[in-house]
């Protein structure tokens, strides 16, 4: 079984960018968790309507199954995983998953959310920040400051999961 890593955080934290760098460094597959959302979830978010926990459950289980179904090279998924209960759902499907939480100031996150063509409006940032439950001491993972470059963040994640970049 390969590594199972979730690069997590609110929208704009750099999950997809960092996740791709981590996957490349590990020779693992990369999956953007946004691609696993049912169409109804995407439509709600695009309309500026926050998802409920009931909306998220099938998506989180799909994230977990994606990690569990990975091959020996491993899987890295970019997924918000904002609450402990969400991470528990992922872990129920894919035990041993390591979470890398990308954290930073609201102003920087807001600035990064302005992405043409992305379904997540900046107006939902406050909702995501209110929902966020940072990683807890008993959860396998690490918390990282998004002030660091994607390469530096990826190197810290790769180091944590037991391999070196390059």
Biggest beta-sheet profile: 5 strands, parallel
Task: Estimate percent helicity.
Answer: 40-55%
From the N-terminal CA to the C-terminal CA, the straight-line distance is 21 Å
Helices and strands, in order, run as EHEHHEHEHHEH
Average pLDDT score: 88
What's the Cα radius of gyration? 15 Å
Q: Could you tell me the strand content as a percent range?
A: 5-15%
Low-confidence stretches: none
| Helix and strand composition category | alpha/beta
Based on Cα principal axes, name the global outline.
globular
Number of strands: 5
Query: What spatial order of strands do you see in the largest sheet?
Result: 2-3-1-4-5
Treating each run of at least 4 consecutive H or I residues as one helix, how many helices? Answer: 7
Report on this model:
The chain has 166 residues and is an alpha/beta fold. It is built from 7 helices and 5 strands, in the order E-H-E-H-H-E-H-E-H-H-E-H. It has helices at 15-26, 39-46, 53-68, 84-93, 106-112, 125-131, 150-160, and strands at residues 4-8, 29-32, 75-78, 98-103, 141-145. It has a 5-stranded parallel β-sheet, with helices on both faces. It is globular, with a radius of gyration of 15 Å. The mean pLDDT is 88.
């Amino acid at each position: 079984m390969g590594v199972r890593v979730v690069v997590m955080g609110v929208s704009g934290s750099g999950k997809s960018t960092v996740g791709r760098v981590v996957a490349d460094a590990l020779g693992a597959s990369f999956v953007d968790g946004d691609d696993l959302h049912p169409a109804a979830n995407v439509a709600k978010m695009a309309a500026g309507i926050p998802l409920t926990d009931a909306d998220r459950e099938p998506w989180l289980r799909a994230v977990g199954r994606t990690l569990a179904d990975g091959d020996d090279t491993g899987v890295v998924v970019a997924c918000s995983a904002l609450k402990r209960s969400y991470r528990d759902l992922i872990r129920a499907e894919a035990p041993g998953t390591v979470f890398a939480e990308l954290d930073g100031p609201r102003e920087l996150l807001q600035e990064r959310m302005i992405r043409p063509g992305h379904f997540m409006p900046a107006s939902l940032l406050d909702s995501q920040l209110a929902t966020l439950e940072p990683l807890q001491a008993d959860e396998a993972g690490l918390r990282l400051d998004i002030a660091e470059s994607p390469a530096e963040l990826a190197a810290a994640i790769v180091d944590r999961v037991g391999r070196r970049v390059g």
